[in-house]
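step: validate -> pass
step: tokenize input -> pass
step: predict -> running
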Amino acid sequence: MQDDDTTRCCFDIACRYLSYRPRSEWEVCHKLQERGFNDRTVAQVINRLKDLKLIDDYAFACLWRDNRLSLKPKSRRMIGQELRDKKVSPEIIDEVTSEVDDARYAYKLGCKKLPFLIHLDQLDFRRRLSRYLRYRGFDYGVIDGVVARLWEEK
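step: predict -> pass
step: emit ->
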């Protein structure tokens, strides 16, 4: 009887944790283990959450990618790193990030930053925009192309 109560309590905590935002399987497991539930109970709850489709690492990764690209675009590499930090499998990460076009999103970010840089000379423009895009995880090849294109369009 007490085992059922423990499982029910664990399930309720997991549902509450998932109510704030979607989570990866690892995040939910980790949270439940932090709360002191044993591995057997956690595994039962995780399996039930999967059956109810409340945990799905592929759907979570797609949502994470879409959220990152629409709100604060980051490079494919940085999105992949964030998903790795959440212990999403490498196969899912590769599949989800394969369609991210770094050049497109770097250009989109550069266009948003352009009004703040329009008054600068070419050297400062290049330095500041490059630093901004590098901070977002884009590689130098993409950055060089975007900076040159935006300088010409300016």
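step: describe -> The chain has a mean pLDDT of 92.
step: cleanup -> pass
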